[in-house]
Amino acid sequence: MTDPSNLGWLLDNFASRTPDVSHALAISTDGLVLAHTRALPRDRADQLAATGSGLVALLAGAARFFEAGNVVSNVTQLDGGFMFCMAFSDGASLLVLASPHADVGKVSYEMTELANRIGDALSPTVRGAPA
Question: Where does the Roadblock/LAMTOR2 domain lie (predicted)?
Fold first, then answer.
């Protein structure tokens, strides 16, 4: 897996150049923070990672139940903005928080571009597996 500081830099760059994005995280399916933007305190990143991994698992379960294939992404509209989740088939997800004024299409597009750039860098190694 890529050095977490490099992932943090990529996430910081993404958040700074994508309008209305405040925070971004890379998380594992078991709710661990792989990397996060500097502006997000670590304890808040841990809370968001746990919440986000639960949401991703819930969506994946619903997709299996309805035989709808894999979950590609999810956008949740909140009173205070948007939370975007983009699952990766190899066990990692990208979570993004944005303001209520964010262009949902633009943020989703930029998330896809980020995922394409970093690819396997967001893939956590399986616990106990040789690195």
Answer: 8-98
Q: Are 31 and 49 in contact (CB under 8 A)?
A: yes
Residue 52 lies in a domain: yes
Q: What is the pTM assigned to this prediction? A: 0.86
| Rounded percentage of the chain residues whose pLDDT exceeds 70 | 85
Residues 6 or more apart whose Cβ sits within 8 Å of residue 114:
10, 14, 94
Q: How many domains in the chain? A: 1
pLDDT surpasses 60 at 85: yes
CATH code of residue 104: 3.30.450.30
Q: Where are the extended beta strands (E) located within 1-131?
A: 21-28, 33-36, 74-78, 81-88, 92-98
Domain of residue 112, residue span: 4-122
